[in-house]
Each structure stands twice: as structure tokens, then as C-alpha cells.
Amino acid sequence: MLINKLFDTAIIGGGVAGTSLLFTLARYTDIKNIILFEKYDEVSQLNSNPNANSQTLHVGDIESNYTYEKAQTVKRSSSMVANYIQNFSEVDRVGFKKDKMLLAVGEEEVAKLKERYVEFKTLYPYLELWDEEFLATFEPKLVEGRKEPILAMGARDQITTVDYKKLSESFVQQALDTDKNIQMRYNEEVVKIKREEDGTFTIISDTTSFRVKSVVVNAGAYSLLFAQSMGYGKEYAILPIGGSFFFTKEKLLNSKVYTMQNPKLPFAAIHADPDMTQGWNTRFGPTAFALPKLERYHELHLKDLISALNIDKDVTKVYTNLFKDKTIRQYILKNVLEEMPLVGKEVFIHDAQKVIPSLNVKDLKFAEGYGGMRPQIIDKKKQELMLGEAKIEEDGLIFNMTPSPGATSSLAIALQDARSVCKYLGKAFDMEKHENEIQTLQTEELNVLESEAAEVAIA
Fold first, then answer.
1. 167 and 202 housed in the same domain
2. Pair 396, 213: CB distance under 8 Å
3. Shared-domain flag, residues 376 and 402
4. Most confidently modeled of 287-301, 313-327, 439-453?
5. Domain check: are 350 and 393 in the same one?
6. Confidence of residue 338 (pLDDT cuts 50, 70, 90)
7. 3-state DSSP call for residue 127?
8. Which residues are registered as beta bridge partners of 212?
9. CB 367 within 8 Å of CB 246
10. Distances from the Cα of 73 to the Cα of 46, 376, 433, 441, angstroms
11. What average pLDDT does the structure give for the chain?
12. Which of 60, 284, 429, 438 gives 20 to 30 Å between its CA and that of 114?
């Protein structure tokens, strides 16, 4: 097998995580030779595709499953994506400014939302409380036919919606526009990573092989499989969670509407989103259910699935504990029913009516071809489900497993990984340039935002 020239860094996976790292290495480091492998014919064909996610920039302001501390971290991470969209002139192509809210239904949720507003207003000064009278004009479908008291905590004119596929394409183009030697290897699946005696690595694909000095794997569930094939991460297993959506047959809402999270449930509460791929018609979801696949609409590789599940007594204990909890057990069973053709909509409608009470079953249709897989990581030593990003880093190797909302944190994760790669290779990272372009808004954008804030205050 032909072995090609030596590259400084190889990136495996061309989703938003892999392409954000490509962009960061190309633009902010003095690393010269970078190669990216993507097994499909273009970037972001899986979870970063707008059909596979809710197209949301998760900032932490309306996600009620985030603690204040978690929201602080998410805010910093997501601001990098928002700043990129603003500073690189990608508003209305990659990112869209829409209104959004967290909706509380019933006296108990309303009381909790009021408390949350007081706490989170310090972190997100733009947040507003919207009562029923305001909502009746602003989003009338939320009020029509409703009997319970409601209250919303909302934000206007923020970047809320992102096409992560177009964001990935933008990252690639920005990287290619630098003077670096970059190879994009599409339709090329990496089958093995081998560490050589001299400390370099051989990347073996289904067609050829390359020598590299460092490797970053951003391949979802497959990141763990690569790590375990090299002897790392044996203490982890994967619980593959699938998600599906339902469309309304017309545009019912202008805003993203999230609902209050049940603290006992580890997955996201139902939300309604204007969908960019459907003329901004409303998309409800996601459902969440265990699915024996690593890629939702692609061929199942049984051997990979068995390896990822890594089932033993510790993993079984996690599954058992999940099903012991009545709330989680009922949630899982309900989501399974929602996937069934004849009864799915009838079951799902009850959740959707929490957002739009007047919604009928006939108003919904199953979103065929939409939805993705979110690999949830199980820590076998602790016998618990890990929620959030996971990383394995070993001497020139980085394996990222980034379940939702990993896309929101893509540039923050890329910054961390790029600095690690630079440290390992003895290369420089231009932090000043990164801070100016990614970590802050350009002056003209700040002026616009300050002007808009002043107008709102005067009004």
C-alpha cells in the first residue's frame, strides 16, 4: 500500500466538529500540512446536517436543563459560533436571527420560571418575561384554547438558528483560503490508526495510507471505537439514542419555543422550531429512544455496534437503573410508541399540545428522513450515563465524542484541541488573532447591537 507524505495533523470526520478544527488550525496556527478524512462525498452528512438536528445555537438562556454554572460555560462556547457568523458575514446564510423563549405551563412551572429569570437575567441581560397578554399578540397559537396559566422567558433578535452543514462548508472554505497545504479526502473511510515506533502515526484508509504526526478523531460514536482499537477508553461504552421529529403542515410559530425540562429525564424536553428546510414551518421534537444503529439512515455495521455497546455487567447495571425509575421508564416507552406509524402521532400530540393547545393530530406529519443519532457515553467504572462531551487525549491523539449540543461548542472544542496539537508539535497558536476574530464581536457589530439596545430602552 502506498504511503504518502508526512502531514502534521490528520482530522478524521468532516462534521462541524472536524471542520471547525480544520479552520482553527489553518487560520490561527503555524501548522503547515493538514489532512481531513470524510467517508462521505461532502461534509456534514450525519448529525451536522440540518435534517438531523434542531438547527439551534444552544446558548443556555432558554434550556432549562442547564444549571447556572453549565450555562456560563455554554454561553462562552456558543458565543464563538455566533461571533464567527457575525464577523465572517454569514448572517442569513449560515446563522439566522429569530426570537426564542422558554415556556412555562401551569402554576408550578410559572413559579420556577420566575425564579430562573431572576437568576439568569444576570448572565443574559437581554432576557424578558412575557405574560399571557403579550404572548396573545406575539405568538397567539401559544394562547388559543389554553386553560392553564403560562409565562415565557424570551429573547428577541438573537442568532438562534444555524445551518451547521453550511457552517462546516464555510469553515472548509476559510481554511482552503489560507496558504496552508490542506488535503480534503472525501469518499475515503479510515479503517485503522497505527502508532509507529518513531512516534508518528499511519492512517490507513480503504484506498491508501498516510503518515501523520498527530491525529484528532471527530467521528461521533466511531471516535470511541478508534480509541478502543488502540487500547484507550475501555472504561466507556455507548448508548445510541435516536431522535425523530414531526412537522406541522403550515407555519404556526415565528419563534423557537422550548418547554421546561423534567429534572429526572436525561434528554431534552420537547420544543418547537421554525425549520429552515421546510419554509420555516414548525417542527416539533425530538423524540428520544434507544436505537441499535450508529448512523440513523445508513447501513448498519453490526460488528461496530456490538463494539460500541461494550455490554458487560457494568453497562447492564446502567440500563437496569434507567428502567427502574418510573418516570424514565414511562418516557422511554412513550417515545417508542411515538415512532410507530399507526399510533405515533396520537401519542405525540399530547406533548405537542403543551406548546400549541389547539393542535390536532391531522395537523402533524412524521418527518420522514429527519432525525439523527446521539451517542450517549456510559462510564462503566462509575456505572452512570455521562451527559455532555467526552474526550480521550493521549500523546498526539485526541478522540472527541460530542453528543448534542456538540455543534454549539464546536469552535470552543476546536480551540482546546488546536492548542493541544500545537503544544504536542511545538507549534505556535495566534491567540490574539483568535480573540479578535472569534472570541469578540467586531466593532461595527458591537455598535449596531448597542444602537439597537438603546432604541429598545427608549421605546
1. yes
2. yes
3. no
4. 313-327
5. no
6. confident
7. coil
8. 7, 201
9. yes
10. 26, 20, 22, 18
11. 89
12. 284
